[in-house]
Amino acid sequence: MPLEIACDESGSEGEKLIGGQTDVFAHAGVRLSLDEAAACLVELRRRIRSPAVEYKANHLLRTKHRRVLEWFLGPLGPVHGRAHVYLVDKKLLLANELRGLLGLDVSPDDELLAAFNDVLRTRNRRDPAAGSFFAMAGDTGELRAKVAELRDAKVLDPLVPAILRAVGRWSEDGESVFLVHDEQPSLRGERLTEIESSPGLAGLEFVDSRTDARVQVADFLVGVARRIAEDELNGNGDAVLTGLLAPYVDSKSLWN
Question: Which InterPro entries match (predicted)?
Fold first, then answer.
């Protein structure tokens, strides 16, 4: 029997890595049975005591529920030792790609970095974004060809690499993995084929998170993980929460 892992993401904005709603992309995988996940949700409801029909990570992140959050992530919590989180600093991902292209280290607030994001997202060669980038980086045929190659490869969207890493992480001990993932309409065609052909993957099913308690637990974990990571990235980190999150963070995360 393959190992069933429930997954969800937070902070996915496709290839928009600068100027979006989030600075961090996070992807979580949770190894719980349906009964264990259902029991976790019942306990969260008992502790949070909100009248909301659907609970989300924001409930755990409220100041008044701090003790519940610490329990959830802590060593006595329901996911400790049974989950992993892959984090991506979006600007760092973009800066690494630009460094590989130009051989230059670029500040996260550099205008060239923002222009690079724009040019890789546009499909119109006459888009002003393209002109802005090439004006700053150097308008050569070789550079344009490299940019076109990167654009076609869709290297900026961290979702597929995150799912592939989840498969790799959970199959490290030789077990095959069946992923139950929250619905992702963007995963079609070649992107879906790449995932489905991943070594170690026994199968993949997309579900509505509201119908699978395991995915709901993954949603809780990935939501709080992204917020904790963003706070840390932006200089507002909470040492206790960052410490509690640390055991979950994948060693191959694109993270400082």
Answer: DUF3800
Q: Where are the domains of the chain?
A: 3-89+157-248, 91-153
The pTM score is 0.92
Q: Residue 233 in 3-state DSSP?
A: helix
183 touches 177 (CB < 8 A): no
Spatial separation of the C-alpha atoms in residues 171 and 164, rounded to whole Å = 11
The DSSP element (H or E) to which 41 belongs, if any, is: helix 34-48
Residue 155 DSSP class: T
Q: What is the DSSP code string of 122-140?
A: ---TT-HHHHHHHHHH---
The total of other beta-carbon atoms located within 10 Å of residue 60's CB is 23
Q: Give pLDDT tens digits along the chain (256 positions).
A: 899 999 999 999 999 999 899 999 999 999 999 999 999 999 999 999 877 767 788 889 999 999 999 999 999 999 999 999 999 999 999 999 888 888 878 777 788 888 889 888 876 656 666 678 888 888 788 888 888 888 877 778 999 999 999 999 999 999 999 999 999 988 888 889 999 999 999 999 999 888 899 999 999 999 999 999 999 999 999 999 999 999 999 999 998 6
* Assigned CATH class of 3-89+157-248: alpha beta
